[in-house]
Specification:
The chain is globular. The protein has an eight-stranded mixed β-sheet with strand order 13-12-11-7-10-9-8-14. The chain has helices spanning 12-21, 34-43, 55-61, 76-85, 100-113, 127-137, 157-161, 175-178, 181-190, 275-278, 292-306, 314-333; strands at residues 2-6, 25-30, 50-52, 66-69, 90-93, 117-120, 144-152, 195-203, 215-222, 227-233, 241-248, 251-256, 262-268, 337-338. By secondary structure, the chain is an alpha/beta fold. It has two domains: 2-122 and 293-312, NAD(P)-binding Rossmann-like Domain (Rossmann fold), CATH 3.40.50; 124-287 and 320-338, Dihydrodipicolinate Reductase, domain 2 (2-Layer Sandwich). Bound molecules: nicotinamide-adenine-dinucleotide. Residues 6-12, 30-33, 36, 55, 70-73, 75, 93-94, 120, 122, 163, 178, 289 line the site of nicotinamide-adenine-dinucleotide (NAD).
Length: 350
């Protein structure tokens, strides 16, 4: 299977490793900064890869089974829509888009050409998360009461100053859109996706050199009656946790670690024998991105071969973005926001 990576920055090594571990042939790299792509190829010891500075030229010249898009967040909409229009299967990094209109444009183009398209919410593949999802699907919690996602990480001036897109409304967003989005994706997925309303506050406490928030909190009401809280911040003095809690009539689970990859609490009124092992799940990861890209690429490779939807599709990617945009809109209006959200984007916060 022939594959190319668009965007050779910080997250790019996770894509290359995932491709290699799944025996996907890396035929080309693309970065608007050509020399960066050349150095990246050397660093990764990639031989016989063609290098491009223009993703349109890449798509024109290479015969590809799929590409992954790991560019600056504000460029995902344009590049993903173009891939879809050209009939090229693609995996796009989170957030899939910066506005509802951009997300809808990607989806419309993908539906028209029938490409296989997915979004990198790789934490869904965490072993602990998979166990939790199975417990929810098997109705082990009974009626869901409430839950929470806390992403409490650390990002300082050095982090934001390394690239000028970071923290800008048009290109990135803040702690919710960049760092907390995986947790928000998990929360919404675990609680059944259907959201009634969101009330949120997003502030900038310690990072005056960025436009967007460094702390966001929200209350989310699901259509099934459950409620949940969201806290996403880069204001901790060190990376502390990504913790997901689920409380139901029949059980409670808390996943923790740096990216919801360990089980802290696993307790049900009607225990199963396998719960003894589930209680001790602790998946080691090299960084806060976790190990999920490898499973994500495997699923995507199979989706392309079988011409089916991937495990994490564009609609899932849009739901995560929609949730965050609703928090932003609530901050802007001071009011609770009903979903589905129409016509809002990060630049409406400027
Ligand atoms: N899934 C995850 O856990 C995870 C982790 C980190 C980053 N990300 C996401 O991945 C994306 C990239 O993040 P990063 O930290 O690697 O950023 P980065 O700035 O380190 O890298 C982005 C690269 O894209 C290139 N680029 C920009 N516009 C381009 C274009 N039009 N065509 C080709 N190349 C272009 C830049 O030159 C840069 O090399 C972001 O959207 C980010 O949110 C996801």
């Amino acid at each position: 299977m022939k594959y190319a990576l668009i965007g050779c920055g910080r997250v790019a090594p996770s894509h290359i490793k995932a491709a290699q571990l799944n025996e996907i042939e890396i035929v080309a790299l693309c970065d608007i900064d050509y020399n960066k792509a050349v150095s990246f190829a050397k660093e990764q010891r990639l031989q016989n890869v063609n290098i491009y500075a223009d993703y349109k030229e890449l798509l024109e010249k290479e015969e590809l089974d799929f590409v992954s898009i790991a560019t600056v967040s504000g460029t995902h909409g344009e590049i993903a829509t173009y891939c879809a229009e050209q009939g090229v299967n693609f995996l796009v990094e989170k957030p899939m888009a910066m506005s509802i209109a951009e997300a809808d444009a990607i989806i419309a183009a993908a539906e028209k050409t029938g490409v296989v398209a997915g979004v990198c919410h790789q934490n869904r593949f965490n072993i602990a998360v998979q166990e939790l999802k199975r417990a929810v699907d098997n109705n082990r919690f009974g009626k869901l009461s409430h839950g929470s996602i806390h992403v409490r990480w650390f990002r300082d001036e050095g982090y934001y100053k390394q690239d000028d897109w970071r923290g800008k409304w048009a290109l990135d967003g803040g702690a919710l859109m960049n760092q907390c989005i995986h947790g928000i994706d998990l929360l919404r997925w675990i609680f059944g996706d259907e959201v009634e309303s969101i009330y949120g506050v997003a502030k900038n406490q310690y990072h005056p050199y960025i436009e967007a928030e460094d702390i966001g909190v929200a209350v989310i009401s699901f259509k099934n009656g459950a409620v949940a809280t969201i806290e996403g911040t880069v204001n901790a003095v060190d990376n502390l946790e990504e913790t997901l809690c689920v409380f139901g009539e029949e059980g409670m689970v808390r996943l923790g670690g740096m990216s919801a990859n360990t089980v802290d609490v696993w307790q049900f009124k009607k225990p199963e024998q396998a719960d003894e092992d589930r209680r001790f799940i602790e998946e080691r990861a090299p960084n806060v991105y976790g190990n999920g890209h490898t499973s994500l690429f495997l699923d995507f490779k199979n989706a392309v071969s079988e011409n089916r939807m991937p495990y994490i599709d564009l609609y899932a990617g849009k739901r995560a973005v929609e949730t965050i945009l609703a928090i932003y809109k609530s901050q802007k209006t001071g009011e609770k926001v009903a979903l589905p959200l129409e016509n809002f984007g990060t630049t409406d916060m400027i």
